[in-house]
Amino acid sequence: MNNKTIWLPLLLIAFVATAHGAEPTPADVVVAFNKSISDRKLDTALAMLANGSMQYTLRAAHAGATTGADSMTSDLKNHWRTVGPVLFGATKSYDRVATVEQTHAEGDLATVWARIASKTVERNGKQRSDQFSEVYLLVRSGKQWQIGAIAGNRGTDSLAVEGPDAR
Fold first, then answer.
1. Rounded (to 5) percent helix, strand, coil in the chain
2. Fold held by 23-157
3. What one-character DSSP code corresponds to residue 55?
4. Could you tell me if 58 and 152 are in contact, meaning their C-beta atoms sit under 8 angstroms apart?
């Protein structure tokens, strides 16, 4: 047996493995979700959310908005279906960059701790940058990971949102 007989099958296996690529990891899904929001591709972001996924909101993101007296949870898909169009309509750009700090996967569950850096440019040109942490709970559905829940420590910013009583 010569060297070509040994190396050719090994190179073929390496090529096939590289061409097919690995399935996205939980961390990959978190990074891709945040990039989709930055790219204003809401349908792409929503596709990464599991059915029945939950948003845990500890405090309102904007001054004057409330989180609800009876619950800090909401449907995650509905959350982004509501927030996305408002966010995209009120800003020239909104960039979210997720830096994964820790990932733990066991079976069909995974947690990802990420540091989120966001830069918002409003329609009037006003800019602001924020940093906060988010924890993602991911579930494996078939061969893919989907986000099942998000909780974060984002504080309330100074951008006031008019409520029904502000008129």
1. 30, 40, 30
2. Nuclear Transport Factor 2; Chain: A, (3.10.450)
3. E
4. yes
